[in-house]
Amino acid sequence: MYRNGVVELEDFPLDDVSDHILEPACTVWVDFTNPTRKDLAALEEELGLHRLAVDDAVADFERPKVDRYDTHLFLAAYAVSLDQKTGVLSTQPVKAFITPHAFVTVHSKSFDIAAVKKKWDDEPDLAGHGVSFLLWGLLDSVVDGHFETVQELDAQIEKLEDSLFDPKPKSPELQRRSFELRKSLVLLRRAVLPMREVVNTLMRRDLEAIDPAMTPYFQDVYDHVLRATEWTESLRDLVNTILETNISLQGNRMNLIMKKVTSWAAIIAVPTAITGFYGQNLPYPGFATEWGFIASSALIVVISVALYFAFKRNDWL
């Protein structure tokens, strides 16, 4: 429980929440980790939460959104993190009930609530704004995670670009990595893109969801959301370009190999044809003579060398 922006009470019974929010200048934060529907039943009664909002709080795969009810707002969002080695993106659902004097967070164990608390502790001057301050700290922490993840993905994609023109390319590995990153970008887009609407909705004046003094801070969060969204979209296009470029380079390398093989086959065909002709058991100019052997050998060398330099000049070898 916060009173005038200062933590006054912790670890009190859930039944006392409704009493504390009636006290002057008091704000209550309640935090749940992986709750069940039964766990939230008592809070539903204490704060008069809507049944559908409570159902959404324990449901999986909710889209990031803000729902408006008579006595409160319901927020759903996703924090994200990227595995640097595999390029796999993981998401952690974060949900919240927002009332005038109570803020309830619901999240999984994998979500770092300590980072949110640190952000609150780092801004004690804003704590007097109550629920608006707590909501800003949560959203700012989540959106900062989105932005950091986009930066990490950008660095991973730059490495892919560099490996495209490696003298010894590893195409299967590059393709696998590209598909992993593209899959992560799709998941990230699902988490980031709806946040524009979420933050924009919270800043609507008719909702009166935030303290007007906190509006610049929510505007800053909104700007970060826009930058993360635009960056995510550009990275998706970039990954697709890398995949297409890799396929084109593979085709070019195959054409180069076929060109070289064909050129060498043409050179090898010359001695094969000449020795095949002179290998006939029939009289021919120079048959069974020393000068015939010398002439045929010279012809093989001259034509083969001439073809080699001709192919080399045309960049076929």
TrEMBL record:
Keywords: Cell membrane, Membrane, Transmembrane, Transmembrane helix, Transport
Protein name, per record: Magnesium transporter CorA family protein
Family note: Belongs to the CorA metal ion transporter (MIT) (TC 1.A.35) family.
CDD domains on file: TmCorA-like
Membrane-crossing residue ranges in chain numbering: 261-279, 291-311
GO CC terms of this entry: plasma membrane
Compartments, record wording: Cell membrane
PANTHER family (alphabetical): CORA FAMILY METAL ION TRANSPORTER (EUROFUNG)
The organism's place on the tree of life at top rank: Bacteria
SUPFAM superfamilies the record matches: CorA soluble domain-like (SSF143865), Magnesium transport protein CorA, transmembrane region (SSF144083)
Pfam families registered for this protein in UniProt: CorA
Membrane-topology descriptor: Multi-pass membrane protein
GO terms assigned for molecular function: cobalt ion binding; cobalt ion transmembrane transporter activity; magnesium ion binding; magnesium ion transmembrane transporter activity
